[in-house]
Amino acid sequence: MMNAAPDLRRQVLDASLELIGREGLSALSMREVARRAGVSHQAPYHHFGDREGIFVAIADEGFRGLRRDMEKALASTPDPIARLQAIGAAYVTYALRHPSHFKVMFRSELAPLARHAEANARADTCFDLLVSVANGASAHRNGRVDAALPLAAWSLAHGLATLMLESKLDRQFGVTRKARESAIAGVLGAFTQLLREH
After folding, report:
1. Measured between alpha carbons, how far is 90 from 88 in angstroms, rounded to an integer?
2. pTM confidence score
């Protein structure tokens, strides 16, 4: 029995992610992606329309994965403030494990999600989950919702992820997985400890 035909869309996406990982965002072209995927020059156009379509698909897939990992991190964490640390750690860890996705997800000039309703909604579900967890933490802390807390938490997690991805903290934290996990826990733990104390 013959194997099913390969998923050309998946091949193009995988080739795009590999290209971004090896050579950066600017290296992505329809022709180069087709060459690396081993498909016809027309295949990327057929499945994605244009370069923007590939970037949007990568962002959409990234937000799906990020939401899944955040939900998983929250599943076994009942304490409201610990949940904020858990979701932040899931965010940074996702970025480190999926750097090509992460580099695209927040680049609106490459993946203008406002023009792509489904992908935009997927991104919103991630932010909505963060807001819900941050609101739970602030309500637990002082009985009221602090509107600035979700933005502070997001800024910290996103900044930490970006700095680590760009190797700006290697000297301070180290480069092994264990060292990075310890660093993430330490930075986010310091933030949530401040919430408990004030």
Report:
1. 5
2. 0.93
